[in-house]
Write a structure and sequence with these properties.
- The chain is of the alpha+beta class and about 325 residues long.
- It has one domain.
- α2 packs antiparallel against α6.
- The termini are far apart.
Length: about 325
């Protein structure tokens, strides 16, 4: 059956997988190719991520310098407060799995922790000076900047993921019969389509944040800051869509609800008296208002544990630890 199907595809015809390459340069004879060793595949994926370098500053590329490992969390504050005696922090990122396939904690030097190639040295220093060199007082601009970092990091992840996806589509089905190749390519196509949708929506959120940065009209943004005394033992930052509130009520359904999916940005930042959880979202994203309301009606003494559990339930996000963290249900 596979031979009959292949007989209908000319060597110079577009490949059936949708890559845009000719069949002879893509899947012809792939069943006879040796699978790429796991170490080589991981190295190729790492290169795909590292090679994705850009500056997300609203005025880029004007005045851009050298793209650097920019931080997603406040380096001089929150990360420094989590450093162990060996100048490392514990993190789940980048994802490393144990023998059972579960994400495991590993050590990272604090200078390399929470970094991504998302800003040039000039714009990173200028744009985030209000939260790196000034005490956090909860000003509208400071709140926006905490969220902007999280948003740009997720954009970077999605764009780098497209590069990594091309590596997977070229290598995951090597040495397999065509039936299996088609199953793998169909799955990768679905993943890629979902990534493209998420990328489009994130770019729209960025357009809102960029507009606020330029105009300083913060009425387009809803925000919440929760203040805590004492140094933190865990920190995280991300942009997430909220599916349920803390009472178990469904807020939105990714499979059936129309775009855009409502998302909020958040981050943990150090303050003169301890730390703060800082959340922001476009004013039009009313589902995020509902989620935060369900959090704020909890007793103040349980909110830290709820936030910690929230951090740990996120996948592929930055979570940094110091010492032992006890989660409560």
């Amino acid at each position: 059956m596979d031979r009959k199907r292949n007989a209908r595809i000319g060597r110079n015809d577009p490949c059936w997988c949708g890559s845009g390459s000719k069949y002879k340069s893509c899947h012809l004879g792939r069943d006879r190719k040796s699978p790429l060793p796991e170490g080589q595949l991981r190295a190729a994926l790492d290169r795909a991520w590292v090679e994705n370098k850009t500056c997300f500053h609203p005025k880029a590329p004007m005045g851009c310098g050298r793209v650097i490992r920019a931080h997603t969390l406040q380096r001089s504050g929150i990360i420094r407060g989590l450093i162990g005696a060996d100048n490392h922090v514990l993190t789940f990122y980048p994802i490393r799995n144990d023998s059972q396939g579960r994400p495991r904690i590993h050590r990272v030097g604090w200078h390399q922790a929470s970094t991504f190639f998302g800003f040039c040295d000039s714009h990173d220093a200028i744009l985030f000076s209000d939260i790196e060199t000034e005490p956090f007082v909860g000003s509208e601009r400071q709140i926006l900047l905490v969220g902007y970092r999280a948003l740009c990091h997720e954009l970077y992840q999605k764009e780098a993921g497209k590069n990594a996806d091309s590596v997977l589509r070229e290598n995951l089905d090597r040495g397999l019969p065509e039936f299996n190749q088609r199953l793998i390519q169909k799955h990768r196509a679905i993943v890629s389509a979902g990534g493209d949708t998420g990328l489009r929506e994130l770019r729209e959120v960025r357009r809102v944040y960029d507009g606020i940065l330029r105009s300083e009209d913060y009425s387009q943004l809803h925000t919440t800051v929760l203040w805590f005394r004492g140094g933190p033992c865990v920190a995280s930052t991300s942009i997430v869509h909220v599916d349920f509130d803390l009472d178990g009520n469904r807020l939105q359904n990714l499979d059936t609800d129309p775009s855009p999916i409502h998302r909020l940005t958040f981050g943990v930042i150090s303050t003169p008296e301890g730390c703060a959880f800082v959340a922001a979202w476009p004013a039009a994203f009313r589902k995020c208002d509902d989620f935060i309301r369900s959090l704020l009606k909890r007793r103040p003494d349980v909110i830290p544990s709820l936030l910690t559990e929230f951090f740990f339930r996120l996948r592929r996000k930055y979570v940094f630890l110091r010492g032992l963290v006890v989660l409560t249900a």
